Amino acid sequence: MVTRRWSQVLGTLVANPWFAYFGTRTIYQGSAKGLCFPGFNCYACPLALFSCPIGALQQSFALLSPRFKSVSASQAAVTAVKRAASYPVSALLYVVGFIGLVGVLTGRLVCGWICPFGFLQDLLYKIPTPKLGLPQWMRFGKYFALVVVAMLIPYITGVHWYSRLCPAGSLEGALPLEVLPPKTPLPAVGWFFWFKIAILVVFLAWMVVTKRPFCRTACALGGAYAALTPFSFYRMEVDSAKCTSCGDCKKACPVDINIYENANSPECVRCLTCKKECPTGAVTSGFGRPYASTIFERESGPPA
Amino acid sequence: MRAPYVLLVVFVVMLITGLLLGGFGKVLVNGIVICLDCIGLI
Question: How many interchain CB pairs under 8 A, A with B?
Answer without folding.
Answer: 184
